[in-house]
Amino acid sequence: MKAISCQFVGSFYKLEQIPQDKRPQIAFAGRSNVGKSSLLNKLTGQKKLAKVSNTPGKTRALNFFIVNDKFYFVDLPGYGYAKVSKQEKDSWNKMMENYLDKSDNLIGLFLLLDCRREVNQDDLEMIKWLHHKQLPGIAVVTKTDKLTRDKINRKLKELKTIYDIPAIPFSVVDGTGKNELLSAVFNLLEEKN
Ligand code: GDP
Q1: Which of 12, 74, 146, 170 is most buried (most C-beta within 10 Å)?
Q2: Number of the ligand 1 atom closest to the C-alpha atom of 56
Q3: What is the value of pTM for the model shown?
Q4: Alpha-carbon distance 146 to 156, whole Å?
Q5: Whose CA is nearest to atom 14 of ligand 1?
Q6: Judging by beta carbons within 10 Å of its beta carbon (0-12, 13-18, 19+), is residue 179 exposed, middle or buried?
Q7: Residues with Cβ within 6 A of ligand 1?
Q8: C-alpha of residue 34 to centroid of ligand 1, in Å
Q9: What residue's CA is closest to ligand 1, atom 15?
Q10: Each residue of 44-103: pLDDT tens digit?
Q11: DSSP string spanning 120-164?
């Protein structure tokens, strides 16, 4: 497996502020508390890269990380956090939509889904948007250490057959999926070249 060296670039609250160079961007999206920070830390082998916090919805920004000096990981704001004002929610949804619509350098998106939860409206919108834009999208079913293998397999199958999206199981606890996810990242980059 290729090594990953990753540095935090910055948190951006406005689209005009994000890095403008042509390096490809790979985004990570999902509901608050789905395990996105934990996954990014695990993937990059840096324990505190993305701050793991138990406060859902802590990320309001587009967080950029540069990987191997060649491409970006973009940590999108966790959606679906109930305890913020509608105004705040609207403004960060808008920024995220803007980013997803306008970023020419976005080459793929990993959509994180908690294995114990059903796909909800926000998740579904993201899946529809991926299909609409024909952007490569891969579901990452997180926290798989919490369910039996049978149930996980059912979930993966459901995502493929009902939602037409490939899925990778992932757990930071037992290390499931790390290599598969990294391979998927490098496949996206190769497809782009
Ligand atoms: P974020 O809000 O999406 O960034 O989610 P976090 O990475 O902060 O994780 C939310 C909670 O889920 C934390 O309590 C994590 O310890 C826990 N968590 C994350 N990944 C896993 C996992 O693979 N297995 C288990 N059992 N818990 C996890």
Answers
A1: 170
A2: 2
A3: 0.93
A4: 15
A5: 54
A6: exposed
A7: 32-38, 52-54, 56, 78, 142-143, 145-146, 171-173
A8: 6
A9: 35
A10: 888 777 665 444 544 578 889 999 999 999 999 887 765 667 777 777 778 888 899 888
A11: -HHHHHHHHHHHHHT--EEEEEE-GGGS-HHHHHHHHHHHHHHH-
